[in-house]
Structure formats: structure tokens, C-alpha cells
Amino acid sequence: MDSMKPSKNKLARTLAKxxxxxxxxxxxxxxxxxxxxxxxxxxxxxxxxxxxEEGEESLxxxxxxxxxxxxxxxxxxxxxxxxxxxxxxxxxxxxxADRMVVSELKNLSExxxxxxxxxxxxDPSPRTSLVLAEIQEQKSLLKTYEITAKKLENQARLKxxxxxxxxxxxxEVNKQNKEFEKKLNQSGQVLSVLDNLxxxxxxxxxxxxxxxxxxxxxxxxxxxxxxxxxxxxxxxxAAAYAIxxxxxxxxxxxxxxxxxxxxxxxxxxxxxxxxxxxxxxQCLTSTTRQKERFFSRFTEVKSSKTKEFLCxxxxxxxxxxxxxxxxxxxxxxxxxxxxxxxxxxxxxxxxNGEFPMFDSSTFLASFFEMAKRVWLLHCLAFSFxxxxxxxxxKKGCRFSEVYMESIAEEVFPLSQNxxxxxxxxxxxxxxxxxxxxxxxxxxxxxxxxVYLSQILH
Length: 457
Fold this sequence. Notes:
Residues 390-451 form the GIL1/IRKI C-terminal domain. The chain is mainly alpha-helical. It has a domain at 58-184. Helix content is 64%, strand content 5%.
């Protein structure tokens, strides 16, 4: 029985020959060859199926990503449309853009759900979906560019309108500057007469010339003060209404008159006293000698530079006047807000009579120039016989062209509508507040500059 069974080694050698074809001899059993060929064909087919499946999955993912980017581009486009409809405000356009944004966000949410559940692989035609998504993305981008172009066109038109407005404003300012230069030249001609002025030749025109320069210096100081306030982040409107409450201004820029009224009120306070304060000099008889002394003060201060005069005579009447008005006009909190400390106040209060070096400070230089002009006007007022007197118009008084002048029409010409309104209500116009007081020299009356309130019915 042992001879009837082939040995194991022989069987192994036979199989090796069949499977590996090492000797080139045809296999004894052709059935084994058929099995091998079928196995090989089946393996090739499986490989091809795997590659096709991987390609379809990759294409499906590309189509899904294309849909995702197309939807995101559409959201950006809708948001751009939403912004565009904000200015000018378009209710229908905003509502439509809002609905489109919501719709695309829902679409994005659906894509997220499909991705998590692997449902994006069920797309029957991923190639078509890919192309359509790319087309949709390009349309959204094109629409976004169109909206951006329209927005830029609107901004350009707005800038053109602003440029036209600013040109008109510039022309108006240039026209006003020419008028101011004309007035300045006229007043300068009168002021030049003061260089050779003698006590015996005094007349009201000289006082009017100095008053004009005093008013101009007050306005200049107010402009500098307002700039300091803006730098220190002050609430300009709140400050204006704190000075003159419950005032209805004709125009927004008229609020500057509130600050001018405040500065003017403080600077002219005590103007009727010889040194702006009640002193022994007030009891002196108003003699020609006393008037000559005031005229001498006028000539001395007028012909000197402010800084040099204060340094040379720190205890003079003019120096004391500067100290008095600075400490009264400039509040300590204002000084700290503008300069960070009170060093100028401390110097002015110094018993040694020192004054701060105001050449380096526009604010101080403007203040001392204003103080000089008001002091000169005061000295000139006491040089007249009889001396010039000052008067203030109370709030609520009925407007009178004899005693008053509307400062708004002088500095900021009113519009045609405002002028028509003022003309129709002239007899009923009331004084809101006095900006610059009025003066009287003998029989000559210099009108007070007032701001008229609007009459609300």
C-alpha cells in the first residue's frame, strides 16, 4: 500500500512546476492552468473596479467642494448687495438681499448635513454638478464686482458733489476775506492816524478804530480757545449751552457767539472803573490832568510790545489788569485741560511779578494781545470829556436798530429764508444775548452787537 501513494516531496515538486513554469514543460493537469487564468482575470477586474470607485468618489468630492465654494461666493454677493442697498436706503432691495442671504445660509447648512452623512457620494452626475457649481461661482463673483463698481461710482459722485460744495464754500470765504481786508485797510488807515495823535485832537472816530481792533482780537482769541477745546476733546455744544442756555441758533456755526459773549463779558467787566476795579482813583475828580494821564498810558502801551512792557513794568496798571483778567477768564480746570498743569497761573500769581514766556504759546500770545487792545480802549475811553460810557443789552429786550446791531448778519450773512423771516418779524425780534457791549461818547452812540433769538410760534 505504501507503493501506491506518491511521496509528499514529489507532489510538492510537481505543483511548483505547474504554478511557476520553471522548466517550460506543459503541466500535466490543464485544469489547474484554467483555474490560475480565471483567478488572474478576476483580480484584474477587481482592480479596475476599485480604481473606478476611487475616481467616482474623488469626482463626487470635487463636485461637493465646488458647490460649497459657489454657495459661499453667493453669500458674499448677497451681503454686498445688502450693504449697497443701505445707502441710499432701499427697503425692497434690503429685504430681497436679506432673503437671499438666508436662503444661501440654509443651502450651506444642507451641504454640511450631506457631508456628515456621506450623502454627497449619491450624486448621479457629479461632472455636471461640478460644471454648474463653477458657473454659479463665477456668476456670483461677477455680480459682486458689478455691485462694487456701482458702489465706487456712487462714492465718486458723492466726492464730486463735496468738491463742488467746498469750491463754493472757498469762493464764499475768499469773498469774505476780501471784505475783511477792505475793512482792515479802512480801519488801518484810521489807526495810522493814532500814531501822530495828540490829546487835543481826540474824537470818536479814534475810539471806534481801537474798538474794531479790540473786537477783532477777542474773536481771534476765541478761535484759539475753541481749537484748544477741540484738542482737549471738550464737548463744544455742551460748553456753548452752558454759557448761553436755552438759545435756538439760526445756524450751527453761530454757537461761536456764545464764547465771544463770555470772553467779552469778562474782559469788559469793570470797564467803567479807572483800573477795572473800584479803587481810590474812582474818587478823584475828573480833571483834564487825570484824562491826560490816561491818554499818556494809552500812548505808552500802544507804542510798546506787550512782552517787553510787562517784563519792564510787571507792577504797572496794565500788568495788574492782565493778571486780573487771566485769573478771572481762564478757569484752573480749563488751564489744566489745555496745558496739563497750572504753571502759567502760578507764574502770573507770583509775587515777583513774573509773566510766562507767552511767545511759545499761541493761546497766551492771543490772550495778552487781546488784553492790550481792551486796555488801550479803556485808557482812550477815560481820555474823553465826558468819558466814554459802556452799556449792555439785557436778554429778552426788543431789538432796536438805534442801540443794537445783529452780529449774525455781520459775521455770517443769513440765508435768503432767514433774512425774509427776520424782515417779517423785525418788530418782534428779541435779544438772545449781548456779544459786544455798546458805547456812548458824548452824542456819539456805538451800537451794541447782539445775537437775536428765533421766535418760535
